[in-house]
Each structure stands twice: as structure tokens, then as C-alpha cells.
DNA sequence: CGCATTATTCATCACATGATGAATTCCGCT
DNA sequence: AGCGGAATTCATCATGTGATGAATAATGCG
């Protein structure tokens, strides 16, 4: 496994999307090991390519990371799914449902894990995660909390719970949460999340 | 800053608690950078000591980590504070209150951060965190959830939210959660957490 | 075809890391 | 005073890292 013996130097035949393969490999490896833990060599190996090629395309490891974090799904869609017509009713369930949808499949989980893991080690990545959460997610979810007292705070608290769930379920893999079905988790968490909205509305 | 010029080799005068200083430095640096990011050299420098001394005392970096993670506060006390006579009433507020108490002061925050950060990079540390949460915290909190349907699940969900809060507040430092006062956060989060208990009880 | 451009690998650098073993200095005990 | 052992540092190794520059091979345009 690993290193592909690809014979001698020089350009390969055909028009393989090598840049794309490197990006995919980068997302995988960054996701598994975080920014510092993922070596350029390991990424290159996972892409079946010489390490120098990575630098050829992306210049530096940091630029590769940034390129790899160009989220492969549209955050707007997600945020809109959560906000859903800027109504607060049912926002708890929509939030965790969308969340599990993204994390449930590897194509969504890998970059999220990469971002999360890396944000724990590197201030650069932390800034990136902050931006991502702020602009791409919170900014839109906030429309549902418009006019709600402590809206920003409450929206963030919701997001923080989801992040905590991601860590327990997908990183630390603590049982029984790691193995419980999506639906069961939704049934458990949705009403609790919902309170972040309901609490504020009923007191206003 | 950094490297203390301490002249020549050999034993130092007096009986300084060097081992303890190394442990403290280790907790700091592991906390700031996680397991992989914290180099033995950096820890040694922070302790004002030669790197070889670290190995002399602890043999290997991993053993040092394990030693540093021997939690400096008693998890039993914390867990008991949360469980509080195995009553579920008010458990939400007690949980977040105790949580903020630990994370509020550096002596508690450092090892927790170290554990969290490292768990994101290293399976060894993830296992450690799993153990810690399971035995030291969950095991005792569960008495409050005794007989409650999905007790384990609900207790873990509570913990996951707290972990998420820790990350948003102390690692990613997302505003406004990062700056809000403890009391305000308690007012916001406590009733939501409480629902993990109340929901189960009222349906049984 | 011919030739510049692009894709790819190889060899190599400077540097940081974890670890080890020998040398030096001090302490405690007799 | 003397001696063994513990504490401390120094010099050093093997390894892995990100990065660079030159060499080689295929492509595509004229």
C-alpha cells in the first residue's frame, strides 16, 4: 500500500486531474491528522505522486491547506436549510438534521474534520474556522434569530453544541453516542436545541 | 524570554523540585500546542532545563504526557459537585457552573486543553480523554440519571455540549461567546442542559 | 515537424525532532 | 574526608520535515 512505483521521471500520459487528486488526498490526510500532523510527503503518497509536485502546484503547505479547505459543498445551502424561511419554529430539528447530513458522508466529514482538528493546533486554522462559522453559517442562521434577544449568543450556543457532538461522535468516539442512529440522536437533541430559540421568544 | 543561561553542567544547588517544574511546563505547553505540537525541547525550555533532563526523568515523551495528564484536581469532587446527591433537579445549572469553575482558572484549563487538543491529533490521547470522561466524570454523573431512560445517552449529550462550549469559548474564541460573563452564560445554557434531564423524566 | 510550455520525478538542503551516552557537579551518608 | 548515587548538561545520532532546483518526459500550438 502507499507509494506507487511509477517508473521514471517526466510527464505522465493522458490528462489526469492530478491537482484534484492532490486536493482530495489533502482533505483526507488533513482530516485524519490535522494540519501539523499531515506531512506533505504523506499527502503526496496518498495521491500517488511525488512530494515536489505538491509544491509545484500549491507552492507551500499552508496554501495547499487553504485550497483544500475551499469547502466542497455550498455552505449557503446548508445555512439556508437550517434557517428555512427565517422561521424559528423547528429550527432545533432542522439544525441537527442538516448537521448529521453533512457529517454523515465522508465527502462532508473530511473537510470538517480537517478544519476542526487543525483549528485545535494552529492559530491560522482557528481563524479559518472562525471565519467559516461566522460568515458561512452563523451569518445566515442569524436571520432566524432576528430581533430575538441575545440572538447571536443563542445561535452560537447551538453551534457549539453541534461541534461538541461532532467531537464526541466522530473524533473521540465515545459510546453510546458514537453508535446511536441518526434518528435517535435527532429525537434526543432536537428539542433541547430548540429551547435556545423558544426560551428567548417566550420571554420577549 | 526562553533559554536560561545556567552556566556549566552538573547538579544544581539546593533541592529544587525540578521534576514538578517540568510537569507544570509540560501541562502548559501541551495545553497550548497539543501532543504533537509540543516539543520536548520547548517543554524543557519552559521549565528552564536541558532537554535531556526530561528524558532522564520520564524516559519518553509519551510517558511525560501521561504523567502530565495525571489530573491535578480531583475529578471525584467535580463529578460529585455535578451529581449533588444524585438529584436531577438543577443538574443543568450545576453542570455548567462546575464546568466554568474548572475552565475559568489556568490550573484547571491547562490540562483540560492539553487533553482536548491532543485527543484531536493522537489516538493515544483520544483514548485517554475517553477514559477520563467515562470513568471520572460520566461514571459519577450517571447516578443522577439512574433509572432515567437513555440516561447514558443524555448524560453524554450534556457533556458534549460542554465540550463544544469549551472549544468555542477557549480555543476558537468565537465572539460573543468568548467574552460573555460566566453568569450570563450560565443563565443561557443551564435551562437548555436541564432539558436533557427533564425531558426524560416527564416521559417516564 | 519543431519548440515552448507544462507535468512529473530525483537529488538535495537546512532544520527540528526524540532519543542516547558520557561527562560534570552536587548531595547525603558513613 | 571520602564515596556512591542522583541531578544536570553537552555532544551527538538517526529520522522526518518543508522546501528548492535541476533534469526528464509528454503535451499542444505554430
Proportion in β-strands of chain A: under 5%
pLDDT under 50 segments of chain A (min length 5)? 1-5
CATH architecture of the largest domain in chain A: Orthogonal Bundle
Question: If helices are DSSP runs of H or I spanning 4 or more residues, what is the number of helices of chain A?
Answer: 10
What is the top-level CATH class of the largest domain in chain A? Answer: Mainly Alpha
CATH fold group of the largest domain in chain A: Tetracycline Repressor, domain 2
Give the biggest beta sheet of chain A: none
Mean pLDDT of chain A: 86
The CATH superfamily of the largest domain in chain A is identified as Tetracycline Repressor, domain 2
Of all chain pairs, the largest interface belongs to: A-B, 46 and 46 residues
Kindly report the oligomeric state of this protein: homodimer
Description:
The structure is a homodimer of 204-residue chains. Chain A is mainly alpha-helical. Chain A folds into 2 domains: 18-68, Homeodomain-like (Arc Repressor Mutant, subunit A, Orthogonal Bundle), CATH 1.10.10.60; 75-202, Orthogonal Bundle (Tetracycline Repressor, domain 2), CATH 1.10.357.10. Chain A contains 10 helices and no strands. The first copy, chain A, has helices at 18-37, 40-46, 51-58, 61-68, 75-83, 91-104, 106-119, 123-141, 151-171, 182-202. In chain A, α1 (18-37) runs parallel beside α7 and α5 (75-83) packs across α8 (123-141). Chain A is elongated. The N and C termini of chain A lie far apart (61 Å). The model of chain A is unreliable at 1-5 (pLDDT under 50). Chains A and B meet through α1, α7, α8, α9 and α10 of A and α1, α7, α8, α9 and α10 of B. Chain A binds a DNA duplex (30 and 30 nucleotides) through α3.
